[in-house]
Amino acid sequence: MLTACGVLLAGCSGSSDGAHPAGPSASSPAVTSPAGRRGTGEAPVRFTVDPTRVPTTPSAALDLVRAVTAGPDSYGPGYVKRRPYESDPAAWPVLGTDCVWRQESLPGDVLATFTRHSRLPAAGAKGEVRAAATVTLHRTAAQADQEMAETLEEALRCPDQQLRATERISGLNSMGSGYGTNGNTSADDYLIEMGTYDDPALGKGSTYYIWNQVRLGPVTIAVVVEGGKGFGQGDLLTVQARAVAGMETEVRTALGVRK
CATH no. for residue 125? Predict the structure, then answer.
């Protein structure tokens, strides 16, 4: 069983994760939101949405989320496209009462969502690492905030989940941090989820599962990393944080108030 304490802060928040992956140990370095993180000398800047720049139609929203969703280059050297590479923009993942994930049609509050899948192929003693980035634009910031809350609730309800036919996550834990708490000096909300990941296609034994999601106004940005054997939690957290930071910057540039 993995421990979630010490990833974002010195203790545990007591909340539990769900719809998305995560999994650091108590020895992992403190993680803050990508922009304005501790020790970089960067001044914390809270994101402010310019309402006139936010898409209001599904087609324009899809153009935006496609433009900012991370691909292989966002994670680091060696990452390539995983097949299928891009998601169906008309599909929305839903966790059933049986703790199995299914694809349904987009809910009414979502203007657009988009996912890209990447992987780091196995090499030598190191196993394959899988990663996916998702960007969702809701009609309102309140609806995006509700998505964050539901993600936390899903882990409480289903600490063990079936992702696909042979892929499972287990022992999920999560922590959420609003702006100004636990080192979050950038996003309106920040969530990290952790657990273990099993897929027989990658060999016997569990690996780490890390899910990180942030909210900037009506936009949610998420990155999941399913770790290969031989990779530590710190390695995967670095990969995840790099991709989240890049997408955060893109969203800030596209929708933020111009100074």
Answer: 3.40.1000.70
